[in-house]
Amino acid sequence: MDREDRGGRFGQDREMHKATCSDCGNETEVPFKPIEGRPVYCRDCYRKHKPKTFGGGRGGRDRDSY
Ligand SMILES: [Zn+2]
Fold first, then answer.
1. If we measure between CA atoms, which residue out of 35, 2, 30, 4 comes closest to residue 17?
2. What does the pLDDT read at residue 54?
């Protein structure tokens, strides 16, 4: 008998954490807590660094060691 509103925590605001972009060095905010030792990117750089493994297959990646 839990008739309480289940949306209690749902509409919680997203906490933004300030971080410094590991690429361009700009200050940015991320919706997650930056993990130490892990690079954080601003939106722009995030796009750049996002791996293109989305059904594309060949994304013009340089072959490093083949
Ligand atoms: Zn950046």
1. 30
2. 60
Sequence-separated contacts (24+) of 46-54 with Cβ below 8 Å: 48/23, 49/23
Query: Could you tell me the pTM of the whole model?
Result: 0.53
Query: How far is ligand 1, taken at its centre, from the CA of residue 29, in Å?
Result: 11
pLDDT for 65 equals 62
CA 46 – CA 36 distance, rounded (Å): 17
Number of other residues whose CB lies within 10 A of the CB of residue 12: 8
DSSP annotation of 56: -
Answer for the pair 8, 2: CB distance below 8 angstroms, yes or no: no
Dist. CA 46 → ligand 1 center (Å): 7
